[in-house]
Design goal:
The protein folds into 2 domains: 184 residues, Rossmann fold, CATH 3.40.50.2300; 182 residues, 3-Layer(aba) Sandwich (Rossmann fold). Helices cover 36% and strands 17% of the residues.
Length: 389
């Protein structure tokens, strides 16, 4: 039976959206300073739950995209979440054939109503009892989904529901600023001096990747004793997450005028940057997942624990240890972010250097500013020249 959906009161929704847009978590102080506040999100256990022999035959898992353009094989965000679902299915004897026990769904349009209607269809016709919602675009619709479908468990990535979290939803966040920091630090330590950042859309997760990238480059420039202006960063949001010839053209123009490496935090649009790098014989830093297999021009990737975190929540559901109504933060302290050094193509930046800088992030010696305001980030940058026009 078709449900009658009620809109979240406008005033409440606007307040929640504005609060989330300012910062999804308590902001941390700039690098090297002591923390004065505890982040709002709970830090999860460092270990991912081990596979059990519990019967999983009753579980149907859906990964729901936010728009028709949000593809499964995006090489980053959706792909990382899907890998966590696949891992769970393999561990517990579920079919990995799409449409049997697991499936990926896209709404007909990029609207909240279309997303909610799709979830209703997924629950009633596919029989999903666990639904993974990847991304900031679910901030409003997830609030209503958790109310309309109380018997379904929701795993919301990179966002919190506007209006609050119910017991059937867990919101997962990642310290993208730390992962971006490692990418910027590694790039400068490797020897790159002309850097670029291309984000998809200026949503909080993408912004934190970029702001961390700037701070990491600054930290490395300082460590190497470089002069002001020796390192430059072109900084731009391309306006979408889908492959786009216009992105290839722009990235190609950057490479043609001296940019050596571009950090592409842009989902499927990252493939467009890769195409430009291949044509120019230049380099790319991937995002979200290890993109080394996508092209030999990918020198490393700023990853976050999408697969492990999704897998952990699925195991909680299976083992009756689900604790909803909470937010989790995956950061360096729990190996929730990092660089995949085993597959990186960096020639000068060593494993020992990576281990040393990662340890300082993990133990809190280095604190990366997670502010969404670039003016605040640039206020603490004196060596790296950033063009964010």
């Amino acid at each position: 039976m078709k449900k009658v959906f009620k809109l979240l009161p406008l005033a409440l929704l606007l307040v929640a959206l504005l609060a989330f847009g300012a910062c999804t978590r308590d902001e941390e102080p700039a690098m090297g300073t002591a923390a004065t506040e505890t982040p709002a999100a709970e830090t999860p256990a460092a270990e991912t739950p081990a596979a059990t022999t519990a019967d999983a035959s009753h579980i149907r898992i859906a990964l729901v995209a936010h728009s028709p353009e949000s593809i499964l094989d995006d090489g980053s965000f959706n792909a990382g979440a899907w890998q966590g679902i696949l891992q769970f299915a393999r561990e517990h004897g579920l079919s990995t054939t799409r449409g049997v026990d697991i499936e990926f769904f896209q709404p007909g349009t990029a609207t909240d109503e279309a997303r909610i209607d799709l979830v209703e269809n997924v629950v009633e016709n596919f029989g999903a009892n666990v639904i993974v919602l990847p991304g900031f675009h679910f901030i409003a619709s997830s609030y209503r989904m958790q109310e309309y479908f109380p018997d379904v468990k929701f795993v919301l990535l990179d966002a919190s529901p506007a209006g609050g979290i119910r017991e059937n939803l867990v919101a997962i966040h990642y310290a993208e600023e730390e992962s971006g920091f490692l990418a910027g630090y590694a790039a400068v330590m490797e020897g790159y001096r002309s850097l670029g950042f291309m984000g998809g859309v200026a949503v909080p997760a993408v912004v934190r990747f970029g702001h961390g990238f700037i701070q990491g480059a600054e930290y490395a420039a300082n460590a190497l004793g470089l002069a002001a202006g020796d390192v430059t960063i072109r900084y731009h949001y391309v306006g979408g997450f889908a492959p786009d010839p216009a992105v290839t053209t722009q990235a190609g123009a950057w490479y043609a005028t001296g940019t050596e490496v571009i950090f592409a935090a842009a989902g499927g649009a990252g493939f467009s940057v890769i195409a430009a790098a291949e044509a120019a014989g230049a380099s790319v830093i991937g995002v979200d997942v290890d993109q080394a297999d996508d092209s030999t021009v990918v020198v490393t990737s700023a990853i976050k624990g999408l697969a492990p975190s999704v897998n952990a929540m699925l195991n909680d559901f299976l083992n009756d240890t689900w604790r909803g109504g909470r937010e989790l933060m995956f950061n360096a302290a729990v190996d929730g972010v990092g660089l995949p050094m085993a597959t990186s193509r960096l020639q000068n930046f060593t494993q020992a250097q990576y281990d040393a800088i990662f340890a300082q992030l993990a133990n809190g010696t280095i604190r990366v500013n997670n502010s969404l305001e670039i003016i605040e980030i640039l206020a603490n940058v004196s060596l790296v020249e950033v063009d964010h026009s």
